[in-house]
């Protein structure tokens, strides 16, 4: 389809999640790219509690959803925009509700052959009495993105054994946590645009693991794109990411994050999560993989709008 660059676009960003600052960076980048490509009516909207009235007043032809985390990635904002009859980029209500919840995601994907770590949801209060599973293991919020609030619990960690109430960690912020076995190995990710997997990127960090700080702090993580992995492993990952995108009903772009224990070959490859609102910042992985495939940042933004309008 031919895009009408006179359409009124509202770039919805910010909000009040843990990922507010990243969302603002994503949104400003999207708005700037549209203006550079000749879009004449682009408004940046920092979401507040009055967002429905503000959108009603603005009457956009399309909303570019640049929100990250809740409530912009969990179906809440999507449901509001559906009720208002607004068209918007990225995934809809049902997909957003499922994909933000790591347990629901497993319930959809694992029966279709997508390998994900076994896990159990536990009350945070219970971990002060005993470990939920054998160490080493990972504790993470059930429904947060961008590796917010993730802790790796090992025999050597300074959290205590069992974990002490005074130890800083996600148990102090969330009532329930997902406990999963720690998978040693390499951190990899695959972006999907439309229904096509773009590439595999390996994330090499200076220390620790690929948490929120490493994702969004320049210089803390080296992106190797395309990743130096065997062709058959890359194909399996890209197939898994594209299949997960389809099974969850994702729209626009998604990003699937993997851990790979390369000593086990394909059997050591695990999908960790699918992100339905991947970052669009200068450090973000989807724009980087799109560029590798010859898709400039501005073209990527327009393709997301085009799919939402189709």
Task: Please characterize this protein's 3D structure.
The longest helix is centred in the C-terminal third of the chain and has 18 residues, at 231-248. Helix 1 packs across helix 9. The chain is globular, with a radius of gyration of 19 Å. The chain has helices spanning 20-36, 51-58, 76-84, 93-100, 102-109, 212-216, 231-248, 285-292, 297-309; strands spanning 9-14, 42-47, 62-65, 120-123, 137-141, 151-153, 176-181, 186-193, 196-205, 221-224, 253-260, 269-275. Mean pLDDT is 93; it is low at 209-218. The protein has three domains: 9-90, Rossmann fold; 99-115 and 184-309, D-amino Acid Aminotransferase, Chain A, domain 1 (2-Layer Sandwich), CATH 3.30.470; 120-181, Dna Ligase, domain 1 (2-Layer Sandwich). The N and C termini lie close together (8 Å). It has nine helices and twelve strands. The strands form three sheets. Strands 10-9-8-11-12 form a five-stranded antiparallel beta sheet. The protein has 310 residues and is α+β, with helices and mostly antiparallel strands.
The tally of helices reads 9
The level 1 CATH classification of the largest domain is Alpha Beta
The percentage helix is: 25-40%
Task: Report the sheet with the most strands, covering strand number, pairing sense and barrel closure.
Answer: 5 strands, antiparallel
CATH architecture of the largest domain: 2-Layer Sandwich
Characteristic terms for this protein:
9 helices, alpha+beta, Rossmann fold, D-amino Acid Aminotransferase, Chain A, domain 1, about 300 residues, 3 domains, four-stranded antiparallel sheet, Dna Ligase, domain 1
